[in-house]
């Protein structure tokens, strides 16, 4: 029952920046010129955005979780991946904040392993039935295998508002028996191959644990984690030699811990096999921003996140044997705790989160190119929290089955083509400047353009600022070159007045028990609706489109 007072504080915090950002009259629009040359490709544009995840695995089988998974799978069927913690925890399968369980492994009175895949199967079934595939995290430690000190509680008691260190418990300890741990990974993979087929399971990602370089998720040593990793990977590969395996999903760039891990998998003696090195098909680290609450409004910390991305890329690029390995930023977010309250996190329900996402992903693509690394994915650690108050302020993609504005930016990403085009904006903050200091002076009105195999040109434009305060619209002139004859133009928008269920909820009085008509209104308001613009008149393959873009707005134009 204590969740509701905490949630009331979160909701109040969410509304404060909204009031602040609309208390001042809007200034006159400022002009921005954007140039796109459809005849000058830059190179491939990988769909790095297609990865998502959450602490709570059991939500995937619940009503709102199933609905949201369906929406994620529709973004890119069969090529969207989901990562979840707690998949091997002991328990009855009841979801809770930063917790989940499957009871996959127990032992009989003689210490013999007992495997039960009922709950893990239901979770993976829920993914696959909706076009989503597993980024399968092998963890955490089943109670029967945990080496935690006697008397240590197994499940943590954390809830929103509590200190983060209270997520510790017996689940984050090394195993008593590494051979049994490796056998668990083998038996799970073997079962998955038998149930889903070799061709399916070979498309998955397999990684071990989460953030082992910090005390919250791992109480063992560096060497014990390397051993844990080796035994699990050996078990997976024994069941499926071609399985795609990697890790270690460290917090941040990983510091000395990551350096030691990279050296171990490249050059060390494998604890499980005795061979040199550990099979590694991809490498993973995390990057988080750092929002704050300043003068009554949220100020985002996009520079902190981008600096973390850059540091992670540089660390991997510096290891010759590993520099060409695919990289997944296994958690890629504006801050570090999806379930944590606080006024600094009051960006989540509205357009601050959606515009931040558009602005940050462009720079992540740029940093990968600059560091010459093989970026495969940037995973958004946001899903949904079942049976919580409406718009409670958690970092999520939907609330009670209603999509938030940020999810529509991923829908925009899904419409981008596979080839990036030459594009520039005189309103875009340069890469070096945003990595160093964020967007604290002039706004960032940026552009990303692409072409699909059918020739359609997609132009994504955003108007972002770190500070959630009122600001003038951008009067955008989009100059297009390298086109054919006149064609159809379709526009999608995400801003205060478009594809924004949060704005609709506030307009109806912020009901915590909406009726079916109010629910239908919010669901309709959440949908990103295409608008057909006048046909683009071209001369010599060139054309021009003008439009207004409000602060924290994002738009996508598709030219056919």
UniProtKB/TrEMBL annotation:
Catalytic residue list: 211 (proton donor)
Coiled-coil residue windows: none
GO MF assignments: hydrolase activity, hydrolyzing O-glycosyl compounds
Any single Pfam family the record assigns to this protein: Glyco_hydro_39
Every Glycosyl hydrolases family 39 N-terminal catalytic domain range: 33-532
Signal peptide positions on this chain: 1-23
GO biological process: carbohydrate metabolic process
Alphabetically ordered keywords of this record: Glycosidase, Hydrolase, Signal
Family: Belongs to the glycosyl hydrolase 39 family.
PANTHER family in the record: ALPHA-L-IDURONIDASE
Name under which the protein is recorded: Xylan 1,4-beta-xylosidase
Gene source species: Pseudoduganella lurida
Species lineage: Bacteria, Pseudomonadati, Pseudomonadota, Betaproteobacteria, Burkholderiales
